[in-house]
Design goal:
alpha/beta, seven-stranded mixed beta sheet, four-stranded parallel beta sheet, elongated, binds adenosine-5'-diphosphate, binds 1,6-di-O-phosphono-beta-D-fructofuranose, binds magnesium ion
Length: 318
């Protein structure tokens, strides 16, 4: 077996470093060398590759971000870019590749397989937008960060009888908002899966205010509304003052949670062991608490209607 390459791609996610560590440690356990590819697919095209030794990954488990750095590469979207990437992989004698990233990154991995490289994907994205797996690495940490921020905002909402709109990330997936609300972090939520219009948000707020609840937190998934417009609409309609907080990049960094660390370790080990067994074009996941693998072609950032969870929310938010 030649060397194993590993890269992180797309948005950084807490726990990516733990996955890198697990890949290196497991490969070394089986007497295989690992090459670390920097800056995702763009770094691969540019040959930014160095040997990753065990000592380089020894103390990275509690660090957010990715020691390999990451990027979004438009050049890799083109076949010419991918052919350049293949040439580089051959030059460095890398026939096996572990890709840690979200939906786009995993789609990219599938394309490299078509060009003759054995690839295994590991889901690393805070968005949790991959339908084939219950969790992606980074989601749990980000959820905890969101809840911590929301808790602070709620203290002020309570003290001042205020209404706040909080925008969380997720691209086109409402999981960060949904799980935050399930964890008691918000009273009204609007997600791509369950979109509320301005009027409905106002009538829910009105109901709460009329029943004497003057502090209200509305969680909205990014990219759904013009938040300034929503804020103005609520202010005019209900004659209250509203604040809007966009959590932004605060959500992506930080120490990975214990859950993400254990998940990333399990996934990193599984990825290398699959490669060793001769598998390719697979991606690792977790379903009902079991590590699984699926063909990369099953990867889609589709909107799944998590009806069971929204049903629970109805019991909580009224
Ligand atoms: N359909 C695709 N084919 C080939 N490469 C892709 C494809 N989609 C995305 N990629 C590569 O993966 C990178 C990361 O994808 P992106 O969707 O931005 O983030 P993530 O993987 O975190 O969801 C892109 O910048 C691009 O280089
Ligand atoms: O950092 P950028 O390029 O502005 O992208 C923002 C997007 O990245 C994310 O933080 C993470 O998305 P990915 O994991 O798919 O890269 C999304 O929640 C957000 O929409
Ligand atoms: Mg993504």
């Amino acid at each position: 077996m030649s060397k194993i390459g590993v890269l992180t791609s797309g948005g950084d996610a807490p726990g990516m470093n733990v996955a890198i560590r697990a890949v290196v440690k497991t490969a070394n356990y089986y007497q295989l060398d690992v090459m670390g590819i920097q800056y995702g697919y763009q770094g691969l095209i540019e040959g930014k590759i160095q040997r990753l030794t065990s000592s380089k990954v020894e103390d990275i488990a509690d660090k957010g971000g990715t020691i390999l750095k990451t990027s979004r590469s438009s050049e890799f979207m083109l076949e010419t870019g991918r052919k350049k990437a293949i040439k580089v992989l051959k030059k460095f004698d890398i026939n096996f590749l572990v890709v840690i990233g979200g939906e786009g990154s995993l789609k990219g991995a599938e394309k490299l397989h078509e060009l003759g490289i054995k690839v295994i994907g590991i889901p690393g994205t805070i968005d949790n937008d991959l339908a084939y797996t219950d969790y992606s690495i980074g989601f749990d940490t980000t959820l905890n960060t969101v809840l911590e921020c929301i808790g602070k905002i709620k203290d002020t909402d309570f003290s001042h009888d205020k209404t706040t709109i909080v925008e969380v990330m997720g691209r086109y997936c409402g999981d960060l908002a949904l799980y935050s609300a399930l964890a008691g972090g918000g009273e009204i939520i609007s997600t791509p899966e369950r979109k509320l219009d301005f009027e409905t948000i106002c009538s829910k707020l009105h109901l709460r205010i009329s029943s004497g609840k003057h502090d209200n937190l509305v969680i909205i998934t990014e990219r759904m509304f013009d938040l300034q417009e929503l804020q103005r609409y609520i202010e005019e309609k209900l004659n209250i003052s509203v604040r809007t907080t966009v959590l932004g990049f605060i959500q992506r960094g930080g120490k990975p949670s214990a859950f993400d660390r254990v998940l990333a370790s399990k996934m990193g080990i599984a990825a290398v062991e699959l490669l060793i067994k001769g598998h390719s074009v697979q991606t690792i996941g977790i379903k009902e608490n079991k590590i699984i693998h699926k063909e990369l072609k099953n990867v889609n950032a589709e909107i799944i209607d998590k009806q069971d969870k929204y049903r629970l929310l109805e019991r909580l938010l009224h």
